[in-house]
Write a structure and sequence with these properties.
The chain is an alpha+beta fold and about 375 residues long. The chain is built from eleven helices and 19 strands. The two termini are about 50 Å apart. Mean pLDDT is about 90; it is low at about 1-15. Removes C-terminal D-alanyl residues from sugar-peptide cell wall precursors. It comes from Pusillibacter faecalis.
């Protein structure tokens, strides 16, 4: 719980309110991928129509199905009459036409194909209705409390809403745990059906923004222009979410404004103890010491001005009493920039040490007595 609260405080400390950087969109958010830190937020919990940015969840569930073995990239998916009836952005699937999961994922990621999105959902869950249930269940699991999905595509439907905050959450889940999605989201131009169907990415960042990695555009008459735009530079990947911009050009301009702000202001630093951590003595344990480890991997998101010359201080307990549980806090690694503390990373027990039993204690005493003889 302490670690969780510390992470929340770090996120709150980094968050930039609207005004420090300006975007035209009424709702927007900038998030760093590794830490999940929110770097900019503007009315981020407003419940708005996401249009085809919905498909981030459709893509996420497809990638999870591939990872779990439910599907493979080579699985053939047969287009149903329902999938072919979607309209909007599509590749004009014909009923009973077959394509691989690989081809359909490409069509969804590059040209936002509604027909392929529904076909993939049906392949995973049996019907679009069942797939939408899974979409909403996954949203709850991820803590997307502003979200209700009504379909797999983002086509207009009463009550189909999400928020910039929730889009960032599902976008992070996708790019953090399924990096292979880049093989689709970074495509600028490609083709299907042996070259007969040409694909050009709806996400102009892929062509024109340095380091762009994706992710998904969306637009309808009511949702206006939306985007979850991702980019990576110097080992840091950012997620810029734009909702309800007035024009397509403005959503890309707003996303670039946020991404430029993030890359110019923040840096990821990976810290580790400069010297090996000493074992902590354990009283009445089945072993005499317990080895501490760094609690959260040591990844810090810092303002660039504070990320240069960092100093470390290690504080460890003089000793602990058994039982020691895996993950019990044993100390703290304090990271400072000049006089300012920029991070306090818990040092945790890297193993469990049970309390010694009376029988084990007796055997230990007998061994000591024999050794003393």
């Amino acid at each position: 719980m302490k670690k969780f609260l510390a992470a929340i405080c770090a996120v709150l400390a980094l968050t930039t309110t609207a005004g420090a950087v300006e975007v035209a969109a009424p709702s927007a958010l900038l998030m760093e991928k590794e830490t999940g830190a929110i770097l900019y937020a503007k009315d981020e919990h407003a419940k708005l129509e996401p249009a085809s940015v919905t498909k981030v969840m459709t893509i996420l569930l497809t990638m999870e199905a591939v990872d779990s073995g439910v599907l493979s990239y080579d699985t053939m998916v047969t287009a149903s009459a329902h999938a072919c009836s979607m309209g909007g952005s599509q590749i004009w699937l014909k009923e009973n036409e077959q394509m691989t999961v690989d081809e359909m994922l490409k069509a969804v990621c590059v040209v936002s194909a509604n027909d392929c999105a529904v076909a993939l959902g049906e392949a995973i869950s049996g019907s679009e209705e069942a797939f939408v249930e899974r979409m909403n269940q996954r949203a709850k699991e991820l803590g997307m409390n502003d979200t209700t999905f009504q379909n797999a595509t983002g086509l207009p439907a009463a009550g189909h809403v999400t928020s910039a905050h929730d889009i960032a959450i599902m976008s992070r889940e996708l790019i953090l745990n399924h990096p292979d999605i880049r093989q689709y989201t970074t495509i600028w131009m490609d083709s299907l059906r042996g070259g007969a169907s040409q694909l050009v990415n709806t996400n102009k960042l892929v062509r024109f923004y340095e380091g762009a990695t994706g992710l998904k555009t969306g637009s309808t008459d009511s949702a206006l222009y939306c985007l979850s735009g991702t980019a990576e530079r110097d080992g840091m990947e950012l997620i810029a979410v734009i909702m309800k911009d007035a024009t397509s050009a403005q959503r890309f301009a707003d996303a670039q404004t946020l991404l430029n702000y993030g890359f110019s202001t923040y840096a990821l630093k990976h810290v580790a103890p400069e010297t090996p951590l000493s074992p902590v003595p354990v009283t009445l344990g089945t072993q005499a010491t317990v080895q501490p480890v760094l609690g959260d991997g040591g990844t810090l998101l810092l303002e660039k001005a504070k990320a240069g010359d960092l100093q470390q201080t290690v504080t460890l307990s003089a000793g602990v009493k058994a039982p020691v549980a895996l993950g019990d806090q044993l100390g703290m690694l304090t990271v400072s920039s000049g006089e300012e503390v920029v991070a306090e990373i818990p040092l945790l027990a890297g193993e469990e040490v049970p309390r010694i039993t009376y029988g084990q204690m007796l055997l230990r005493l007998l061994r000591l007595a024999l050794l003393s003889d």
